[in-house]
Design the sequence.
């Protein structure tokens, strides 16, 4: 089966709902809500910074970072930051950017960094005749000036070990890699149960400045 991509599940909301059903996985998923004015206001009030992204989408395209700044609001899309004095002005600008596509709002995570640039991790897990196998576990360092780490947007790939060593500590490499493996196995079990036929999974993990591991999303057609 390893030469087949398997069943695609593009809806981020559906995949996240499947993972939240497991109490061992749920604490590693950032609080997430559907995009609307009320949820955006309450999430910004609670978390100060959020990320909004299309419910269906890949490659970091359409991902926007939004935060409260003093008495106003700001958002960054790609490398451009816009500032607003009112919530209404922010919401209006985001709605234009969104073009009526369904979005979700996720608590912003302050990622550990390498040289001032955020890093996250991609774990590729594939179903073969012999069962599920790891194909890769890599770190992706954001291009200078960007907050998304996707390689198609100029991110730099390093080994997961190098990323953890440079952003956190050499002493944490083994434990963090093992935790990502454990979460991958548990999550795959939940996704396979909910979406029979999945065969190629790309897990996007982040490790925050305090060393906590977060699951940002799981791709069923990883790039």
Sequence:
């Amino acid at each position: 089966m390893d030469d087949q991509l398997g069943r695609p599940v593009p809806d981020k909301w559906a995949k996240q709902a499947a993972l939240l059903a497991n109490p061992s996985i749920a604490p590693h998923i950032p609080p997430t809500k559907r995009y609307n004015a009320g949820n955006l206001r309450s999430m910004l009030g609670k978390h100060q910074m959020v990320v909004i992204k299309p419910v269906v989408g890949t490659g970091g395209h359409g991902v926007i970072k939004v935060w409260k700044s003093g008495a106003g609001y700001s958002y960054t899309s790609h490398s451009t930051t816009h500032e607003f004095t009112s919530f209404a002005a922010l919401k209006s600008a985001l709605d234009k950017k969104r073009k009526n596509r369904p979005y979700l709002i996720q608590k912003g995570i302050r990622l550990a960094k390498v040289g001032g640039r955020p890093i996250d991790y991609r774990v590729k897990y594939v179903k073969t005749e012999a069962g599920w196998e790891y194909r890769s576990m890599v770190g992706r360092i954001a291009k200078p000036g960007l907050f998304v780490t996707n390689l198609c947007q100029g991110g730099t790939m390093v080994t997961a070990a190098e990323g953890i060593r440079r952003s956190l500590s050499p002493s944490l490499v083994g434990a963090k890699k093992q935790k990502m493996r454990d979460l991958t196995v548990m999550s795959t079990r939940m996704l396979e149960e909910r979406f029979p036929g999945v065969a190629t999974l790309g897990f996007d993990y982040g490790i925050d400045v305090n060393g906590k591991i977060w699951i940002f999303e799981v791709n069923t057609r990883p790039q």
In short: The helical segments are 12-20, 37-47, 87-98, 160-167, 173-194. The chain has a mean pLDDT of 90.
